[in-house]
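Slide 14.
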Amino acid sequence: MNQLDANIGAGCPSGLAPSEAPIMSDPSAFVRRVDGQNRLSLTVRGAKCGACINRIESAVNALPGIESARLNLSTGDLEIGWRGSLKAPRIVSAVSALGYGVSPRDDDRSVSDEQREERGLLIALGVAGFATANIMLLSVSVWAGVGEMGETTRTVLHGLSGIIALPAIIFSGRVFFKSAWSVLKHGHANMDVPISLALIIAFCVSVSETLRGGEQAYFDASVMLLFFLLIGRFLDARVRRKAHSSARDLAAMAHRTVMRVDPDGKARSVRASDIAVGDRILLAPGERAIVDMQINQGESDIDESLVTGESLTRSAGPGMHLLAGAVNLSQPLTGTALAAASDSLLADIARMLDAGEQRRSTYRRIADRAVSLYVPFVHTSALLAFIGWLLAGMGVNEALLIGVSTLIITCPCALALAAPVTQVVAAGRLFRSGTFLKSGDALERIAQCDYIIFDKTGTLTLGTPQLSGNIAPKALEAAARLARASRHPLSRAIVDAAGTGPLASDVREFAGLGLEGTVQGKPARLGSAEWVGADGSSGERSSLWFSQEGEPPVRFQFEDHVLDDAAVTIGRLHSAGYGMEIVSGDRAETVARVAQTLGINHWSAAASPREKVQRLEQLEAQGHRVLMVGDGLNDAGALALAHASLAPGGAMDISQSASDAVYSKGLSALPRLICVAKQARKVMLENFAFAAAYNLVAVPVAITGHATPLVAAVAMSASSILVSLNALRLNAMRENL
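Slide 15: predicted structure.
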């Protein structure tokens, strides 16, 4: 195998050619020292698949002194760490020598570059679509008049088609031409190489046929292929930008300012990155902790739903640990930083998201595997046909025509459409049923899963506490008058049950205890059993007590109810043979109750984000392919690192971005999604099998000279139509899960 074939698929198609990204003149200015190690953050342009990651990371790791090199395919960020005398320009040269563009990482510029690329692809798609529609009108006239249309009329129609096609191919095709040239000049190849050759040669042969008054021209085939391929390229760019946007959102959360108390007692705002272990921090009511800290002074209610998934607040006081991401609700707190921002829980989740994106980027889709075999086959077949007929004594023009026919008839139209058209049909079917599919390869990964992990809160349950049991209307209304002055989740549940109404007078809230005020002229309290003087457990977080002068205390109990369709959904998945368990950050007794209600035998409680990921890794080590279903920031790392993942429509933006699909019409969407994914994978395999069979028949016909370029173009178009029709069968398939 020669060097070109050895690197097939190594370079990747790109909406922005690698050569368009500027190479920095002095990369040494961007090197920073961290713990004795040199660090450099670069943005790489043109990397689009797992092979790119392997080539770039291998090239950098081969340099002396390199200790780490990680490329994030979704963001294009390349993080490099090394020790020794290695110079930054040598690192940049190692990457640019592979045919990729390199520039310093600049988040603001990265955003504008992504938006510019997406906008450029959309404009190119519009131009190709306009040209396709108009050329097809002219082509239909030529086809309808075969045998009757005069040569002059046919030549004029072909000429008009060429006039429309030329600017469309030049403008819209530059996406593929630049990508192909950028890798060819470095001795590599990618899928854009045969696409570019097919576009250019088909156009040139069509021009030649038109000038000599021939019957055959292929302007319509060229522009239509360009249009369909740009659809996939645009959707790919849109998904990548969305994924990068959520990564920036999490980074922004982790880089807010923090109020630091200096040794002289003065509090001043500093960047989170400036906080060191041992610094004193002031956390005001309503603020979110950006670094992990230990409370030294003050008592307050803490909302940790972002990091644990627990919907109920907890009381925090001196000596307790507060994780980054928790929100201080009621009173100011002073504490000591336990870790730098880069070592906090938020930073840990960001690293898990990054690792998850990288793992999915290296996943080899069916289409990737097909392309790695297809590209050398296309080139070799066309070249051998041309050389073979020359050696047989045929003229150069005739031999070239046979080579072109071979190239056209094996043009990757059917192959290029085999997966995307199936994904589009499947995504449309799922969208109509309330599920939004975020990436095409998600269907393949979902279909491969055999084990499902559920978060509890917001996934199997409603995610908000609700009042349970029978409460006398008079007591409910009296308690609601106090509850309306609080944002505590249990107070909100009482208000939801009682509805709108008046507020008690002189209401005061005491952190960790409850509310106190005057209701209809009598002192009243709402809070813990100890606070109201009742005989009950003060540590129960799922109940409140209400007392009023002259009346016995009343207990209010709360539950986070299981979703209405959860039991049926779990039953269907059990019947289909899926292993399932609950991994939640909630309390053990609550998780156990939900697991028992739904018939899920395996569960774990009080799980941190890292522990959720560790459980995924344990299952993967056992040979399982895990589907993760969750909704909180504490689930984001597991969602990103799972083989496939889902999030409900009410999940956090970061969790939705880390997942492969988002559903909005209840948990019953899960078995439907799995069923459609399996059906789509089957149809994709059928399409690739058809494309392979088509080439096995068509190539010998073209090589032996029995297919003119027109016949080749018609055959190519017919193969694309059959692939599309087969994909449309997905809409008629019945759910069988």
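Speaker note: The mean pLDDT is 78.
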